[in-house]
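Re-run with default settings, no changes from the original entry. Doing this only to confirm the output is reproducible before filing.
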Amino acid sequence: AQPDTAIGQPAPVFSGLGFDGTPTEIRADGTARLIGFFAHWCPHCQRELPSTVDWLESNDLPDGVEVVAISTAVDEAAPNFPPSSWFAREDWPATVIVDSSSGALTEAFGLTGFPFWVAVNGDGTVAARVSGELDVAGFEALLATVTPGGAVTESAAGIRLVTANDGAQIQENPPANLVILDVRTPEEFEAGHLEGAILVDFYDDDFADQLAELDPDVPYLVYCRSGNRSGQTTPILASLGFDDVADIDGGIVAWTDAGLPVVTD
């Protein structure tokens, strides 16, 4: 098998809401995390979630380590809907974050199947990624890959997901030197973009090099079509030392759905 190129790279930094609306921010804060992605309709997830609950009830996590669940790929016509009821029935004891309807977090973390686990060190770097159902030994092996502590990376601390309406507030009341960064294609940009945005095409071969030419010391508002490309852009920005980046959850689709304006000039 080919080595996972994500290992050692900065994990996406994000914020989100739980089923009850409680906000949670996941960033490089010294806490190591096992982040599990679960779909309520997935048979493997239906076994993995209670298995993880059993382990957490019977064992103590190492100091400085926590487990976080991401509820994603919601289907109203599928079993165990709504997922909030499923997690409640299984007595999930840890943090849950609800992914966007576009699956921005699954895209940002490179999900390849369900369930999907990402082990993140305390310094915010990816330690391991695993797709598929884990037995107890597999879960404990994954747990052994993470190292808590480490320097908190200021570059990651200010990278966050924001709603379209929050993004509009940033645009309307911009901090000094705000850059609005569109990472879609030129064709998408010409069809409609946020006023004042600059374009850096995610699909350009030298995309990362173009990002490196931008000023890391000013604030950014980043978006794409649905949140997928921007979600993959923010870890690159973090690795380059950008310390104030707001990523619009759901992209320009969410923006226009909220009735917010775009320009075509």
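Residues 151-157 have pLDDT under 50 and may be disordered. The domain at 158-257 is CATH 3.40.250.10 (Oxidized Rhodanese; domain 1).
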